[in-house]
Design goal:
Helix 2 (13-44) packs antiparallel against helix 3, helix 2 runs parallel beside helix 7 (187-201) and helix 4 packs antiparallel against helix 10 (256-280). The two termini are 33 Å apart. The chain is globular. It has helices spanning 2-9, 13-44, 50-89, 104-132, 134-147, 155-182, 187-201, 205-225, 228-243, 256-280, 286-292. Helix content is 80%, strand content 0%. The protein has one domain.
Length: 293
C-alpha cells in the first residue's frame, strides 16, 4: 500500500513541471531570438552610422522576431514534451485513430459540432468579458498585434498558430499534465486542473478565460477517448476556425436578446457534440457514461 502511494505521489510534480518547463523554454527562446536578430542585423547592415544600425536592428526585430521566437520555442518544446510524455506514460499512449470509436459517424459529427460550438462559445464569452472589462480587451489586442496573429500572418506564424502550437500545448496539458493528475485525483478534478493551468499559461485574463473553457472540453474528450492525437486534431481545427473560419461564418447578437439566443445556441451545439462524442467512445464503458449524465 505504501509503495502504491509513493508511486502515485511521484506524479504530483509532473502536474506542474510541464507548464514551468514550457515557460523556461520560452525564456531561452527569447534570449536566442534577440541574439539571432542582432547577428542578422549586423550581417545585413549596409549603413555607416550608429543611428542607422539601431534603426536597422529595430526593423529586423519588428519583422523577424516573432517568427524566430515562436519557432525556437515550439519546435524544441514538441521534442521535449513528446519525449517526456512517452517516458512517463509510454505504455498507454495511442498514436492513431484506429479503434477509438465504436460509432464513427457519432465521433466525426461530435468533433465537427464541438469545434463549431466551442468556437462560438469562445467568441461570445470574449465579447461579454470585453464589455465587462475593457482593459482586458486592450491587453488582448496588444498581445495579438505584437504576436502577428491575423488574417495576413506570415507563413511561420501560420505554422505555429494552426499546427505546431496546438501540438505542443496538447502534449503539455492534455498529455503530461492531465495524465499525471489522473494518477493522484479523480478524472473530473484532473480535467479542471489541466484546464486552469492551460488558461494561466496564456498569461492574460481575456485569453485565459476562454482557454479554460476550451481546456475543459478538450480535457473531457481526452477522458472519453484517451487519445492525444484526437485532441491535437480538434485543437488544430479550433485554431483554424478562430483564425480564418469565423470571418465567413454567421455571427449574430446585435441586441441583448439575440446575443443571448446565439450564446444559448452555441452552448446547445457544444452539449450535443459532447453527447455524440460520448456515444462514439470505446474507452469509456456505457455504464460509466450513463453515470456521468
Amino acid at each position: 500500500m505504501n509503495q502504491t502511494k509513493f508511486n502515485r505521489r511521484k506524479y504530483i510534480p509532473w502536474i506542474f513541471i510541464p507548464c514551468i518547463l514550457a515557460l523556461v523554454i520560452q525564456f531561452l527562446a527569447g534570449i536566442m531570438t534577440i541574439q539571432g536578430c542582432v547577428v542578422l542585423a549586423i550581417g545585413s547592415f549596409k549603413g555607416e552610422s550608429y543611428l542607422e544600425l539601431v534603426t536597422h536592428l529595430a526593423n529586423v526585430m519588428m519583422n523577424e522576431m516573432n517568427d524566430m521566437l515562436y519557432l525556437l520555442y515550439v519546435i524544441p518544446g514538441i521534442v521535449v514534451f513528446a519525449i517526456l510524455y512517452k517516458q512517463l506514460f509510454g505504455n498507454g499512449i495511442k498514436l492513431s485513430f484506429k479503434g477509438i470509436s465504436k460509432n464513427v459517424v457519432a465521433t466525426v459529427g461530435g468533433v465537427v459540432l464541438f469545434c463549431l460550438g466551442m468556437q462560438y462559445v469562445s467568441v461570445y464569452l470574449l465579447n461579454s468579458l470585453s464589455v465587462a472589462f475593457p482593459s482586458w480587451l486592450e491587453e488582448y489586442q496588444e498581445i495579438i498585434e505584437m504576436a502577428g496573429i491575423s488574417n495576413e500572418m506570415t507563413v511561420a506564424m501560420f505554422i505555429y498558430t494552426i499546427l505546431l502550437g496546438p501540438i505542443c500545448e496538447e502534449l503539455i496539458f492534455r498529455g503530461i499534465t492531465y495524465k499525471a493528475a489522473t494518477k493522484v485525483m479523480p478524472y473530473y478534478l484532473a480535467i479542471i486542473v489541466q484546464a486552469v493551468l492551460f488558461g494561466a499559461f496564456h498569461m492574460n485574463a481575456l485569453q485565459a478565460s476562454y482557454a479554460i473553457v476550451i481546456g475543459l472540453g478538450l480535457g473531457y474528450i481526452m477522458y472519453l477517448y484517451d487519445n492525444i492525437i484526437l485532441t491535437m486534431f480538434i485543437h488544430i481545427i479550433y485554431n483554424f476556425l478562430g483564425t480564418y473560419g469565423m470571418t465567413y461564418l454567421p455571427i449574430g447578437g446585435n441586441t441583448l436578446i439575440s446575443f443571448f439566443l446565439w450564446m444559448l445556441g452555441a452552448l446547445v451545439v457544444t452539449y450535443i457534440s459532447i453527447l455524440l462524442l460520448r456515444k462514439g467512445s470505446t474507452v469509456i464503458k456505457e455504464d460509466n457514461i450513463l453515470s456521468d449524465i
